[in-house]
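Subject: mismatched residue count in predicted assembly?

I count 481 residues in my input, but I want to confirm that the predicted structure covers every chain. Input:
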Amino acid sequence: MILYDYVLSASCYKVRLMAALLGQPLTLRAVNFHPAREHKSPAMLTLNPNGTLPVLQDGDAILTESVDILRYLTADVPAWRGEDDRWLALAADLNNSLGMARLHDILQFDVDIDAARAAGVKQLRKLEAHLTDQRFDGRIFLAGDRPTIADIACFPNTALAPDGGVSLDTYPSIRLWMRAIRSLPGFIEMPGIHRLHELEVAQ
Amino acid sequence: MSQSINDYWYPVGLLSGIDASRGTLLLGVDITVGRTGGAFWVKDAAGNALPTVKRFGHLWTCPGTPSGDLFTIPEADTPGRQLVDVGSVRVKCSPLRAVENFLNIAHFPFVHTDILGAEPHTEVERYNVDIREEVNEVWATKVKFFQPQAAKSAEGGITTEYMYRVASPTCAVLYKTCPPRPGEWDVITLFVQPLNEEWCEVWPWMALYDDDSTMAEMVSFQQLIFMQDRSILENQIPTKLPLDPGMEAPTQADLTSVAYRRWLKKIGYFYGAQLVAA
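Triage response: the counts match. Full output below for your records.
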């Protein structure tokens, strides 16, 4: 499996993280998204006419939407699937708000930054309310007792919110949820999302 | 007499990335950067042309009267190097903080874990630092550090030797052991455009010997490293770089930083600096 990848992309990280958690090896092909805009190059447009990343190529199959790729990677792993459509939609909303605020702040994308941050905060409140309900029921993940592709889809743009000038300090349930994801065996980091330090129990 | 902050050269764009025109800030003042045909230009808010230099893949300008030519990096001119336009990243921090972080080695195992450093190899051995009066630059030499993956072209852990050079208050150059060509130095720079005292645009640039990696891989590697620093830089307190001892007590590992701060004080470059003890 080949992933056309950009190291700072939250959507590409969804795919890298999912594959790492599944133990699925990926061949990474770095794309110079910034500053060279290589995702709009003729070679990349042939692969994906939309000119977006990530692009996953597996034999003849070419997938260009991160949610489709998460479904593809977990097609034979039912444990990672759940009642997740609502939260996959939230992942798209997070990408269009917090994700755009981040691209504005780090790579100078032309975005209405106040509107993007305000929309992002709205999504975070929705996420916090749901995760708090889940905690009252003794659960930590979005769709149940164990992680599903919905968690992996929502995690990157949430965790990277501070890159776009949105603080996560006021969302305790989101912070615990992010900690649970970072604790999963096989978890990998990306710039802006750190791994957990090894904890030792005091003697 | 100290030189005005306006009389230094500052990077304002990638030559490969400037088309038409774009507005930006330099030292808190609006400027416009653009290209007409093959000619690059920079104008102030009143429409007056500012001096420009094309060097190291970037366009440079000086809002005042240049006190001299922009510095050179002769090592970067040797043939066979890949010249890497890494592209800019914006950071909410003092331009001087951005340079100081670039000069710091001790954070490698904790911020660039398993790439530029790893526990338990956290010790910074003694190295040499001096302020070279004749060129008015800060140099750190004989810096050695254990690195799990020092460059895109490095296979496995090696002890890397470094030299750091502060060539201008907002520009630093790093010379680093070159894994495929022992005896040569890879050149990695950090050029900082001060948007204002607490916000900057950082333009890393590299001149490397690397025949195996693609350009996209080299760009990605450097963006990965720099973005790992960004969240740290945006959370430093106080925001401006303190030039007098106060809350921040330097240790042996911070010798370059101590020299950098001392040099800024000596040359009177206080933009993005905090002068009173916090």
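The domain at 73-236+256-262 of chain B is CATH 3.90.380.10 (Naphthalene 1,2-dioxygenase Alpha Subunit; Chain A, domain 1). Marking this ticket as 'not a bug'.
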